[in-house]
Amino acid sequence: MTNNKKLLAWVEEWVQLCQPDNVYWCDGSEEENRKFLEGMIAAGTAVKLNEERRPGSYYFQSDPSDVARVENRTYICTNTKELAGHTNNWVDPAEMKSILREKYKGCMKGRTLYVIPFSMGPLDSDIAKIGVEITDSAYVVVSMRIMTRMGKAVLDILGDGDFIPCVHSVGAPLAKGQQDVAWPCAPIEEKYISHFPETQEIWSYGSGYGGNALLGKKCLALRIASYTAKEEGWLAEHMLIMGITNPKGEKKYIAAAFPSACGKTNLAMLIPTIPGWKVETVGDDIAWMKFGADGRLYAINPEAGFFGVAPMTSTHTNPNAMSSVRANTIFTNVGLTPDGDIWWEGIGYDCPAGTINWKNQVHDPASDEPVAHPNARFTAPASQCPAIDPEWENPAGVPISAFLFGGRRPSTVPLVFQARNWNHGVFMGSIVGSEVTAAAIGLKAGVRRDPFAMLPFCGYNMGDYFKHWIKIGEIAPDKTKLPKIFNVNWFRKDENGKWLWPGYGDNIRVLEWIFNTCDNAVETVDTPIGFIPKKEDINVNGIEEISANIDELLNIDKSKWLEECELIEEHYRNFGSHIPRELITEFEALKNRLK
Fold it and tell me: What is the rounded distance in angstroms from the CA atom of residue 138 to the CA atom of residue 281?
């Protein structure tokens, strides 16, 4: 327990409103974890997986209405709509709190209210933040234990200090004697994931899944933290952090932001195909960064685990991820095999007969139904990753030498290019996007912009977020030590729709050029969009057949880039007067260079 008066009063206030049958303060111990998991097995919520094949691991199926983040039910509640910006769903804070207080009345009847003290980041880091989540879901408790530093040690560090209050309920009270369901949640139109950046609060109701319910993840680590970072002069970003060591033993850290389905986790855990290079993982999803005493930007991974998409993960695409989930892992909405193991599409071997799909039916190979939901997940401790960086829990963080942006662009955007300066790099981050086909549900064909890969996660007006990045460049203690900024595109295709670049482990060849460019060890080629490599500086030893593609991979078609400028113009119009003048200057300079 704790003597923190503010925390005790806050918990008591919610106990009175939610009316749980019991209140339990989580200590984060293994014994407690086992007790909750065994309780969920007895309740029919969890299945213990085969101990020999998958030790300490458990299988869950969610309700079909509760399978992913629900962006249309996610709200940023700021005092003015303008502060939230056009990329967020806005509701007045007082109005949202009024709606939710009604929902929360008696919402935990028949259930236990769990108090989860958690730290985003190593416990003794000055970049870390402490939150406390109350929830009525034991699944949330065992997941938060993997994804954050959680329990008694956090309360000990908190003392009388301040914390970020996070309220969560599945929104399914139980009447006396009522039988519970395996996955309690509210209907989709009753789900609310609400953020109050100015008061640093998160209120979530109706969903028990992922980023809707594990409130340390996207809610605190990005939506609340991005606003706090703006106020306090640091960065909270949707970025992987990786360490790269060259054959001479020199090491650099890189942070990279890609929209979903662009290979972020695969890059974070990359196994290089060229001898002598090594890649290590600090984090695969989120980076918090502050300037250190030496003037460099230092990053921590605020998470303690991986919450990864399972389908298409295999020993071919990401062997380190497969090793990370070998034990002590929670699997949600994948397939369950007859011998008590898991299966998903793209795992690399055939689905065993009799496998149960994510809808709890025996899989019919003749049907079009997938075994695993496309957003099926694994939740695994980061410490189990064979490529985990020795500095991943360094409270001071790791020094960042370069930022990478990128998306899925079959044409127009070259394999790699470097920004001319910091503001030009911010411009590059502000226009990141992936091309979508007309077949993509609900999206018209064209480029779907996802600036800085933060579109669903920025907790305030995104135009002001761009201004904050410009300001970071201005307030840097030593501007010569700012990370260099690059754009990468592994997804370029030829006119027949064939990939021009092999990707996966061969991406180290692009990272090698970036690594050397950070040291000014290679000459670059000046183009209208930025600096690209000289053809001979892309290492193709061992993949000589790719040599014929290098010209096309690095080609910059001015006519396509002038078309791109029209799309950028349209994109920027959405931000109105909030687009920083520095980015307009960069945009005008690009158009002039193209002409």
Answer: 29
Token pair for 269? 């855990």
- Can you tell me the distance from the alpha carbon of 311 to that of 301, in angstroms, rounded to the nearest whole number? 24
* pLDDT score, position 531: 98
Annotated catalytic residue within 77, 219, 262, 458: 262
Q: How many residues does the chain have?
A: 595
CA distance 581 to 547: 41
Token pair 């195909």 in the structure block, residue: 273
Provide the 8-state DSSP code for 27.
Answer: -
Beta bridge partners of 531: 418, 526
Sign of the dihedral defined by the CA atoms of residues 565, 570, 575, 581, in that order: positive
Closest CA to 22 of 140, 100, 138, 120: 138
Rounded CA-CA distance 328/48 in Å is 11
Q: What is the DSSP code string of 37-83? A: HHHHHHTTSEEEPPTTTSTT-EEE---TT-SS--GGGEEE--SSHHH
Tokens for 154? 């956090």
Question: Is residue 147 within 8 Å of residue 307, measured between CB atoms?
Answer: yes
User: What is the pTM assigned to this prediction?
Assistant: 0.96
Query: Phi/psi of residue 570, each to 5°?
Result: -60, -45
Query: Over the stretch 140-161, which tens digit does the pLDDT of each residue have?
Result: 999 999 999 999 999 999 999 9
Tokens of 570: 């349209």
The domains found in the chain, sorted by start residue, are: 5-46+69-232 (3.40.449.10), 237-303+390-594 (3.90.228.20)
Cite the beta strand spans of 278-414 per DSSP E.
Answer: 278-283, 287-291, 297-300, 305-309, 330-332, 335-336, 342-343, 377-381, 398-406
> CA separation (Å) from 461 to 124, 132, 289, 399, 538?
31, 26, 20, 28, 39
Q: What angle do CA 229, 232, 238 make, to 5 degrees?
A: 10
Q: Is 262 a catalytic residue?
A: yes
